[in-house]
Amino acid sequence: MDGWGSLTMLLKRQNANKYRKAQLRYDLQKKKEAFLSNQKSNSEFDFPELSTVEMEKLKKEIRSKIRREKIKNKIISLLILIAVIVLLIWIIQAKNQAVYQLLQ
Fold first, then answer.
1. Which residues contact 58 (CB under 8 A, 6 or more apart)?
2. Contact (Cβ atoms closer than 8 angstroms) between residue 60 and residue 52
3. What is the pTM for the complete model shown?
4. How far apart are CA 2 and CA 82, in angstroms?
């Protein structure tokens, strides 16, 4: 062997890796273009036209739903906060009672 065998193997491996990466990039680009071309056709919607009175009515309904959700979330958060505080107080009280009983 002339000592250049490992170098030729390295070059062959590098060329194979370049080809493989180029093929993967090509496949990915092809899939991306196919996905984007299919997506463009589905982006148009046919919404019914609403009168201004109906639009205002719809807005009021949406706003009232949002207000109810906010109130519900605040109540739930407050109840969870109270439960955590009560639990912490109970744990601290139980710990203090255990220490007090040990000291007696």
1. 50
2. no
3. 0.48
4. 82
Tell me which amino acid residue 60 is.
K
| Overall size of the chain counted in residues | 104
At residue 94, does pLDDT exceed 60?
A: yes
pLDDT (tens digit per residue) in 35-61: 777 665 555 677 788 899 999 999 999
Instruction: Provide φ and ψ at 4, rounded to 5°.
Output: -100, 5
Ordered by start, the domain boundaries in the chain are: 1-42, 60-104
| C-alpha pair distances (Å), 6 with each of 20, 58, 88 | 21, 75, 69
Please give the pLDDT value at position 1: 47
Q: Is 104 helix (H, G, I), strand (E, B) or coil?
A: coil
